[in-house]
Specification:
GO molecular function (chain B): NADH dehydrogenase (ubiquinone) activity
Radius of gyration of chain B: 23 Å
InterPro entries (chain B): CPA3_Na-H_Antiporter_D (IPR050586), NADH_UbQ_OxRdtase (IPR003918), ND/Mrp_TM (IPR001750)
Number of helices of chain A: 3
Number of strands of chain A: 0
Helix content of chain A: 55-70%
Number of strands of chain B: 2
Order of helices and strands of chain B: HHHEEHHHHHHHHHHHHHHHHHHH
CATH class of chain A: Mainly Alpha
Structural class of chain A: mainly alpha
Pfam family, one (chain B): Proton_antipo_M
Largest sheet of chain A: none
Distance between the termini of chain A: 71 Å
Protein name (chain B): Na+/H+ antiporter subunit D
Main location (chain B): membrane
Helix content of chain B: over 70%
Strand order of the largest sheet of chain B: 1-2
CATH topology of chain A: Helix Hairpins
Oligomer: heterodimer
Number of helices of chain B: 22
Largest sheet of chain B: 2 strands, antiparallel
Shape of chain A: elongated
CATH architecture of chain A: Orthogonal Bundle
Shape of chain B: globular
Distance between the termini of chain B: 44 Å
C-alpha cells in the first residue's frame, strides 16, 4: 500500500516541479498548490497506513488494546493545509496585483526591481 | 457508569504534575507577549498615532524579557516548558538553551531599534496598513523559532514569520515592491515547503518531532534510516531561507524594495532564523551527517561568500550592495558550520549575532544617506561627510565592522573562523574568508569614498550642515556602539558563545532538561 502512495507522491512532486520551473506566474501558482498537496500526502504516508483500526480506546479500558492507526499525521496535515491554503490565497492575490501593476505574468519581463541595464558603479571621481 | 469502576489512572505517566516554576514562564513569555501586543494593536485600529509608542514599549519589554531569559539560562542551564502539561515527547516542548536565548536577545534588540527608527520611516498610511501589528507578529514568529524545542513547531513559527514578512514587504504597494514580493514570496514558500518535506521524512523515520528525542534516537537509527537524505533536504531548505549560494537569488531581488526599516529588520532577522535552524538541526540533531556533508557545506559557504561580495562590488545602489553583503555574511557562517568543533560553531554563532546588529545598522545608514543625499545610487550620492560628519563617522565604523576589521564586532568571529579552518587544514576556506573580508573592505571603502568624501557640489552646495532626527540617530548610534563595545570587550560574550556551542555539540544538558532523569 505504502509503495503505491509513494509513487503517487512522486507523481505529485514531478508535476509540481515541472510547473514551478515555468516562467508564467499562474503555472507557478498551480505548481505551489500541487506541491503542498504532495507534501500532505507524503506526511500521511510517512505516518504508516493502517486500515480499519481507529485509535479509539474501548469503554472501560485505559489504553489502546493493540496497534492502531496513527492519528498524529492528520493533525500535522491539518496544520499544513491551513497554512498552505492561506499562503496560496495570498500569492494568488499578489500574482493578480502583479499582473495588474506590471501588466505581465511572465517572470522574465518582471524587471522593475532589478532593471536589465543598470549603470555600473563609477570608477573614479 | 464505566468511570466509577475503572481504577484511578496514574496521571504522572502522562502529565507534568508539579506546577511550572515562576521563572520558567519566561520560556513562553516572549511569544505570548508579542502576540498580545500585536492583538492589542489590531484592536486599536483607529488611533494610529498611538501605534508606534505601544509597539516601542512592547519591544522594549521584549528586550527585558529576553535578557532575563538569557540570564535564567546562564544561571540554571537549558529550561523546558511543555504545552498542556503533556510529558515530552507528546506535548509540544519549548526548550531554551544558550544559543536560542542569545539569538532571541539579539533579535529583540534589532527589533527595538527598528521600532524606534520606524517613527520617521513609516507614515500614517503605513501605520494604517498595519506595520506595527505585522512587526509584533514577525517578532512572535522569530522568537518562537529561536525558543521552540519541537521541529514541527519550528515549521509553524517559520510560517508565522513568513506571512508577517509578506505583509511588511508589500507595505506601500509600489510597483517595485510588488515585483520584489513576487520573487520573495514564491521562493520562500517553496523553501518552507521543502522544510515540511524534510520534517515529514523525519517523522516517518523517527516517529517523533521533539528535538531532544530526535537527538537521543539518531544514534540508534543511523544504520537503517535515510539520515543523509534528511540532512541534505534540511540543508537545502534552510540554505534557501538563509540565501546560501545556489539558492540566494530571491534576496537581492527583493530586499531593496520595501521601506528602509523593513529591509533592515529582514536583513537582521530572517536569514538568521534560517541559519539558526540549520545550526540546530545539523549540529545538535544530526551531527554525524553534518560531519559527512561538511565538504559540501564548506564549498557552498565559500561560494556564497565570494558570490555575495562580488555582487556587492558590482552594485551601484546602496541597498542592493547591502543585500549582497548579507549573503556574503551567510557564507562565513556556513563556513563555521562546515568546520565544526567549538571554534567553528562558536564562530558561526558569533558571526550571526554580529551580522544581525551590523546589517540592520547598515540598512539604517542607507536610509539616512538617502534622506541626506536624495538617492540610493552611488553615481548621484555625494558630499555626505560635509553634510553630517557624525553620521559619516558612524558609517565608517559600520563599514569597518562588516569588513571584519578591528576594533569592531566583525573582527573576533572572523578570527575564530579563520583559526578553526586552519586548524583542520582547510586553508582554502580560510583564504576565502580573508579574501572576502578584503573585497568587502574595497566595496564599502569605495562607497565611503564616493558617497561621503566626493563633493560634486564643490563645497558650496545647496545645503551644508544637515540635521538628522533623534529617532533615526538613536537606534543607529546605539547599534554602532554595541558593535564597538563587542569589538573592544568581547570576553563575556565570547565565553557565553563558547558554552552555547559546547551545549550544541554535547546536548546532554538540553536532553536532561527535556527528559529529566533519563540521561544517557
Amino acid at each position: 500500500m505504502e509503495a503505491w502512495f509513494a509513487l503517487l507522491v512522486g507523481t505529485f512532486f514531478t508535476v509540481a516541479i515541472y510547473l514551478l520551473l515555468s516562467k508564467f506566474i499562474i503555472r507557478v501558482l498551480l505548481g505551489v498548490a500541487i506541491l503542498g498537496n504532495g507534501v500532505n500526502l507524503l506526511i500521511f504516508t510517512g505516518g504508516r497506513l493502517t486500515r480499519g483500526v481507529p485509535p479509539v480506546i474501548e469503554e472501560g479500558a485505559d489504553a489502546l488494546a493493540g496497534p492502531a492507526a496513527n492519528a498524529l499525521p492528520q493533525a500535522l496535515i491539518l496544520t499544513a493545509i491551513v497554512i498552505s491554503f492561506s499562503f496560496f490565497a495570498f500569492l494568488l492575490v499578489l500574482a493578480w496585483r502583479a499582473y495588474e501593476d506590471l501588466s505581465t505574468d511572465n517572470t522574465d519581463e518582471m524587471r522593475v526591481a532589478e532593471p536589465e541595464e543598470e549603470p555600473a558603479p563609477p570608477l573614479g571621481y | 457508569m464505566a468511570v466509577s469502576t475503572s481504577p484511578p489512572a496514574d496521571l504522572s505517566a502522562a502529565l507534568v504534575l508539579e506546577p511550572v516554576a515562576a521563572a520558567d514562564w519566561l520560556v513562553i513569555l516572549p511569544v505570548a507577549w508579542c502576540l498580545a501586543i500585536g492583538a492589542l494593536l489590531v484592536m486599536l485600529r483607529r488611533p494610529i498615532g498611538l501605534h508606534p509608542f505601544i509597539a516601542i514599549a512592547g519591544l522594549a519589554g521584549l528586550v527585558v524579557i529576553d535578557a532575563l531569559l538569557l540570564h535564567h539560562v546562564i544561571v540554571s542551564g537549558p529550561v523546558t516548558m511543555v504545552m498542556g502539561r503533556w510529558l515530552p515527547p507528546f506535548g509540544i516542548a519549548f526548550t531554551v538553551d544558550l544559543t536560542g536565548a542569545l539569538f532571541a536577545l539579539a533579535a529583540s534588540v534589532v527589533a527595538l531599534a527598528g521600532g524606534v527608527y520606524s517613527l520617521c520611516d513609516i507614515n500614517d498610511s503605513g501605520r494604517r496598513y498595519g506595520f506595527y501589528p505585522f512587526l509584533m507578529l514577525l517578532m512572535a514568529g522569530v522568537s518562537g523559532a529561536f525558543l521552540t524545542g519541537d521541529i514541527f513547531n519550528l515549521y509553524v513559527w517559520f510560517e508565522v514569520l513568513l506571512i508577517s514578512s509578506f505583509g511588511l514587504i508589500v507595505l506601500g504597494s509600489e510597483r517595485e515592491q510588488i515585483d520584489g514580493a513576487v520573487k520573495y514570496g514564491f521562493l520562500n514558500l517553496v523553501a518552507t515547503t521543502l522544510f515540511l518535506v524534510a520534517t515529514g521524512y523525519l517523522y516517518a523515520s523517527f516517529g517523533t518531532l521533539n528535538m531532544a528525542d530526535i537527538a537521543r534516537k539518531a544514534e540508534g537509527l543511523r544504520g537503517t534510516a535515510p539520515l543523509m537524505t534528511l540532512t541534505a533536504l534540511f540543508l537545502l531548505a534552510f540554505g534557501m531561507k538563509a540565501a546560501a549560494f545556489p539558492v540566494n537569488f530571491w534576496l537581492p531581488a527583493s530586499y531593496h524594495t520595501p521601506r528602509v526599516v523593513v529591509s533592515a529588520l529582514f536583513a537582521g532577522l530572517l536569514t538568521k532564523v534560517g541559519i539558526y535552524a540549520l545550526i540546530r538541526v545539523t549540529v545538535m540533531l544530526l551531527p554525524m551527517e553534518r560531519e559527512e556533508l561538511s565538504f559540501v557545506i564548506a564549498v557552498v559557504g565559500a561560494l556564497t561568500m565570494l558570490v555575495g561580495v562580488f555582487g556587492a562590488l558590482a552594485q551601484s545602489d546602496f541597498r542592493r550592495m547591502l543585500g549582497y553583503l548579507v549573503i556574503s555574511g551567510i557564507g562565513s557562517i556556513l563556513a563555521g558550520i562546515a568546520v565544526g568543533g567549538p571554534g567553528g560553531i562558536g564562530g558561526a554563532i558569533f558571526y550571526a549575532l554580529h551580522s544581525m546588529l551590523v546589517m540592520t545598522a547598515l540598512y539604517f545608514a542607507s536610509g539616512v544617506a538617502a534622506k541626506l543625499g536624495g538617492s540610493f545610487s552611488l553615481s548621484s550620492l555625494s558630499g555626505l561627510y560635509r553634510r553630517h560628519a557624525g553620521f559619516a563617522a558612524i558609517s565608517l565604523m559600520l563599514a569597518f565592522a562588516v569588513s571584519g576589521l578591528p576594533p569592531f564586532s566583525g573582527f573576533w568571529p572572523k578570527v575564530m573562523l579563520v583559526k578553526a579552518a586552519l586548524d583542520i587544514g582547510a586553508w582554502w576556506l580560510a583564504a576565502a574568508l580573508l579574501v572576502t573580508g578584503f573585497l568587502t573592505t574595497i566595496a564599502t571603502g569605495r562607497f565611503f569614498l564616493l558617497a561621503y568624501w566626493r563633493d560634486t557640489a564643490g563645497g558650496q552646495g545647496a545645503a551644508d550642515e544637515a540635521q538628522i532626527p533623534v529617532a533615526i540617530l538613536l537606534p543607529l548610534g546605539v547599534l554602532t556602539l554595541l558593535t564597538l563595545a563587542i569589538g573592544l570587550y568581547p570576553e563575556p560574550l565570547l565565553a557565553t558563545i563558547q558554552s552555547a556551542a559546547a551545549g550544541l555539540s554535547e546536548p546532554s544538558s538540553y536532553l536532561n532538561s527535556v527528559f529529566p532523569g533519563a540521561a544517557r
